[in-house]
């Protein structure tokens, strides 16, 4: 009889061992990531918990066991619940809590524990328990000030912000503004056709403006273009200026010396068109006279 009792215990252990091992193999794998800091938490702070778990095969999570958004416990409100499925049996649960407690002294608080239910393949219901996470709450105002009603002892006096010396910046702003204005006037003086500034309404500027208005399709366009340029030469020369007067014209007006080749080309082209009735077609001639008049206008304004 004494030998039978140990033998029966040994047989029962052999029978229970597979069930225990099977239960161990089917335990869910859980990974919990709690907030990094468990102290100095104040009112309004948001605390996040990240849960990642894998249920046994053919198990189904009970959605109604998930915590409800907006639930509040001991001054801590659940403000966000995000559930994602990772694979067939894996789940990722992201919870965000916000602290609304108003303690006047540091106290220990905790994020509530969770009980997630799931139904196994055999139909039995199991509970996945997630422990609570504790932290220290830090009040914004010390206990003495809160008790005595003297919150001002923890406040800084208000001061006017120091004035910034803008004199140097104002100086450089005026300098840059002057450069912008000078650059704009220079571009206007060089390229503008109208008499916007002094010394812009010279004879060659007037000739260039009139030549630009001519239409190449007009039969009198070439004669008018030559006429306008000859008028400008006569104005600067003080008398009728012909090809043989180019040297005296340049000596009398040295500013046109850099365009001596253009002046020679103009008088040669004028003789071909007006006296010999030769030369390029009308469009090419008008284009060339525009370039010559513009070049002489730059000389007239001293920017060539």
Describe, in plain words, how this protein is organized in 3D.
- The chain has helices at residues 4-25, 143-148, 167-191, 203-213, 221-237, 246-252, 260-274, 282-301, and strands at residues 29-33, 46-54, 60-61, 72-73, 76-86, 90-99, 107-111, 114-119, 125-130, 133-137.
- It is of the alpha+beta class.
- The strands form three sheets. The chain has a five-stranded antiparallel sheet, with no helix packed on it. Strands 3-8-9 form a three-stranded antiparallel sheet, with no helix packed on it. It has a two-stranded antiparallel ribbon with strand order 7-10.
- A hairpin with a 2-residue loop joins strand 4 (72-73) and strand 5.
- Helix 4 runs antiparallel to helix 5, helix 4 packs antiparallel against helix 8 and helix 5 (221-237) packs parallel to helix 8.
- The model is unreliable at 1-5 and 13-25 (pLDDT under 50).
Compile the SSE list and pairings.
Elements: H1 4-25, E1 29-33, E2 46-54, E3 60-61, E4 72-73, E5 76-86, E6 90-99, E7 107-111, E8 114-119, E9 125-130, E10 133-137, H2 143-148, H3 167-191, H4 203-213, H5 221-237, H6 246-252, H7 260-274, H8 282-301
Helix pairs in contact: 4-5, 4-8, 5-8
Notable characteristics:
304 residues, alpha+beta, Immunoglobulin-like, 2 domains, 10 strands, disordered N terminus
Task: Give a quick precis of the structure.
This protein has 304 residues and is of the alpha+beta class. 40% of the residues lie in helices and 20% in strands.
Give me the strand/helix succession.
Answer: HEEEEEEEEEEHHHHHHH
**Alpha-carbon Rg, integer:** 49 Å
Given helix and strand content, the structural type is: alpha+beta
Which band does the percent of strand residues land in? 15-25%
Proportion of helical residues? 40-55%
By oligomeric state, this entry counts as: single chain
Number of strands: 10
Described by the principal axes of the CA atoms, the overall outline is elongated
User: How many helices does DSSP assign?
Assistant: 8
Indicate the low-confidence ranges by residue numbers.
1-5, 13-25
The overall number of domains is: 2
Average pLDDT for all residues = 80
Task: Summarize the biggest pleated sheet.
Answer: 5 strands, antiparallel
Q: How do the strands of the widest beta sheet line up side by side?
A: 1-2-6-5-4
> Between the first and last Cα atoms, what is the distance in angstroms?
131 Å
Keywords: Membrane, Signal, Transmembrane, Transmembrane helix
Protein name: MxaA protein
Signal peptide: 1-22
Transmembrane segments: 171-190
